[in-house]
Amino acid sequence: MAAFADFSELLVVGGRNLGEAGVLALARTTGATAVIDDAAARRAADAYKVDYCPTLRLLCWSIRDGLLTVPLVAELADDLLSSRYHFPFRPGGFARWAEENGMLDSP
């Protein structure tokens, strides 16, 4: 609860960012890696030295490791974009973005 209070104080505004505060609190108390995208949440993670990974990086690593496919992630990305999620590309643009940014290359 103390960790959640710390992150809530940094992130929660008018009921927004409760999820990010919860994810970061859980990661901090368990030593897990938080999957977060919000810039404020990333700054909070850095402030408390919590490991984090952006959603797109996790999805691209999963493709690279053979756990997911480009068409599946492209469809997921389009679904997320239709629900007000923000990515650095428009619907239908995942594969091109991943290729242009070397996100599917071997580590």
Description:
With 107 residues, this protein is mostly helical. It folds into two domains: 2-53, no CATH class; 55-100, no CATH class. Helices cover 57% and strands 4% of the residues. The chain has six helices and two strands, in the order H-H-E-H-E-H-H-H. The protein has helices at 2-11, 18-30, 39-47, 55-64, 70-81, 94-100, and strands at 34-35, 52-53. Strands 1-2 form a two-stranded parallel ribbon. Strand 1 (34-35), helix 3 and strand 2 form a beta-alpha-beta unit. Helix 1 runs antiparallel to helix 2 (18-30). InterPro entries: PIN-like_prokaryotic.
Mean residue pLDDT:
94
What oligomerization state is this entry in? single chain
Helix segment count? Answer: 6
Total domain modules = 2
The proportion of strand residues reads under 5%
Protein structure class: mainly alpha
Point out poorly predicted stretches.
Answer: none
Helix-strand pattern:
HHEHEHHH
Q: Characterize the biggest β-sheet.
A: 2 strands, parallel
**How far apart, in Å, are the first and last alpha carbons?**
37 Å
Approximate shape = globular
Overall strand count: 2
Helix content: 55-70%
Q: What is the alpha-carbon Rg in Å? A: 15 Å
The side-by-side strand order for the widest beta sheet comes to: 1-2
